[in-house]
Each structure stands twice: as structure tokens, then as C-alpha cells.
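Most newcomers find our protein records easier to grasp once they have seen one. A record pairs a protein's sequence with a compact description of its fold. An example says more than a description, so a record of this kind follows:
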Amino acid sequence: MPTDQPQNGSTYVVDAENAADMARLMHQDRLFTKNMGGLFSEHFDLSNIHNILDIACGPGGWVIDVAHTYPEINVVGIDISRLTIEYARAQAKVQWLVNASFQVMDATKALDFADNSFDIVNARLLAAFMPSATWPRLVGECLRITRPGGIIRLTECEMCITNSFGFEKLNGMSTRALQLAGQSFSPDGRNLGITPMLGHFLHDAGCINIQKKAHVIDFSAGTEAHLSQYQNTMVFFKLLQPFLIKMGITTQAEVDGLYQRALDEMMSDDFCGVWFYLTVWGEVPAKR
């Protein structure tokens, strides 16, 4: 089994060991799972599923939920952050989930698992740290560690779309900074460009029966998701500020003003916002 070796050189745009970001990821994880229609809204046949891997599992919410719901399945989560892995292990321990385990591992490098180790490999929201040039290698690694007939499942999002000037300006700065950092597929930096690439990655890796399912979170004023997404935005855009300044996109004074304006506008009665994301999954062929 993998060992917990120190991980350096994280490409995550905020500090992977930040406690505030860990709390944000916990809320975001629950929001995504709910809006995706559950743990496996694609209605996979889990009767012959024994081992599942969740890449960049964060605080382990999805792993914990799968392990609790399917006690006969062993679920492994990996993440570069020691803080989140320690938290996830503690949660599994207090809930007596012997079928859930967690490892510190860097998904931008070779995955420390043997060939054909898993029946399903799941990965959500990797674009925040995955260099664009590294995606094909990652999906190739997923293929290697997934058994023939198994499933590779990728879920990614673009930036939210809102009617808030401050929010949209921060979005534009973020996508431009990610483009400059080599973590975007957009030719002009107007978006992340990751969602149209997912099926392409699976196809090029050799997957078959590739399918897609779109999701949307409406976090407009008055919706159930509004407060949760307000809190997510409040933490994320604050933690992102050093990255934006480092990439030469803005100044501290400018980003502070936009940040406060975005929060104010999100609390107005006429605020509207949606967040689109896409799940793409493919089957590993019997012969590779």
C-alpha cells in the first residue's frame, strides 16, 4: 500500500493545508453530491464493485458517504493535503468505517497503486490544481489502475455565471490567472475550458462507452443553495487573492474592493447565479 511521503510543489492555487479551505471543501462536497442526484446518479451496477478510488478527495466527504452507504465496498481517498487526510481518517474512525481509508498522494504524479486495483476511479474538481499538460497522464494513470470493465468518472465545472459585477470581475481575473499558470484550456482566458475536454481525455486514453451528464446549481437569492454558495465564494475569493496578485492580474487594493462588492451584490434581493458542471464517465475495455 502507498506510504505517506511528504508532498511538495503543490499546484493548487490556494494553500492546500488551509483550515478555512478545508471547511469550504466540506460544504462544497455536500452541495455537489446533492445536486448531482446522489453518490452515483448515473445508476451504475454496483453488484460486482469491490474497490473504489476517489482522487483529490479533500476532507473525504464523498468517500465517507460511499463507505457508509455500501459497507461491502472498500473505498480509498487520496489527497495532497495532510490536514484534510488526517481529518478524513478521524471521521472514518469515529464512524467505525473499516472500509474507508485515506492516503496522502499527489495526483499530478504517478499514482502509487498497482495495475487493475479499482473497479471505479472517481475524480471531482481537479482543475483547481491540475496543469493542463498533466491531464492526459493522469487519465492514463486512471486507466492503468482500473480493472477491465471498470469505470473512470470525471466531474469538472466552469466558473459560475452571475449578474454581479464584482463576482464577474473576480471570475475573469481567476480564469486569466489560471491561463497564465498553465492550468486552463481556454485560448483567451475567458473560462477554464476543462468541461469540453473530459470526453476527449477518456477517448484518447482508450475508454469506451463514454457518456455525459450535465448538472446545475442555482444559487440565486432566495434559493436553497444561496447561503452555502455565498460562504463558498467568501472563503474562496479571499484565499485566491495572493495567487491573483502573484500572477500580476490585480493589486491588493483593487481585489479588496471587488471582493467586498461581490459579497454585497450576492446579498441583494435581485442577485442571480448559476454554476454548471459536467460528469463524464467511460468504461475500461477488456483488451488494452
Remarks:
- The mean pLDDT is 92.
